[in-house]
Design a protein that fits this description.
The protein contains eight helices and six strands, in the order αααββαβαβαβαβα. Helix content is 44%, strand content 13%. It is globular and about 60 Å long.
Amino acid sequence: MAAPEIEHLIALLAKLPGLGPRSARRAALYLLKRRESVMTPLARLLEDTAAAVATCSVCGTLDSTDPCAICADPRRDRTQICVVEDVADLWALDRAGTYKGLFHVLGGVLSALEGVGPEDLNIARLVARAGAGGVREVILALSATVDGQTTAHYIGERLAGKDIAVTRLAHGVPVGGELDYLDDGTLSAALKARRPV
């Protein structure tokens, strides 16, 4: 039986994505064995990061400045807003390097089962941003789930009549994907979204 402090550390580490109780126990032991070189610097960095990082008041991402570096970048195309569910989605799209517009983080998707309604997400702020002028396209980069599609439909309705193109990411066969490994929903979406060669 470990000391209560160690058990508490393991319990907190187990709450991290991808870490179960066994992985958390291994991580805790690793940290404890390397207190000076890893654990203490990590603890300081966690504290500093928690104090320095906040939510951008414009788009909803996480950054140490407000507005964030993306919103403040004058090279960004201000006629486009790409709507994502979470900050991780924003990071993934920005890392790809092909999209040069602005972003908007919803903070989730609509879900009747989980009790998430429009007032729980950053949808009103998105509609206000898009309607403030200058925005010509809102790109919905939401999950291809029922909740993601419901959210996309709701946002499309809220932006209707504002002279703004509302588009969504294509769904279908991934680059390098082999057909026999894809699920039926992906194959169906790919067939419906086919285009001329």
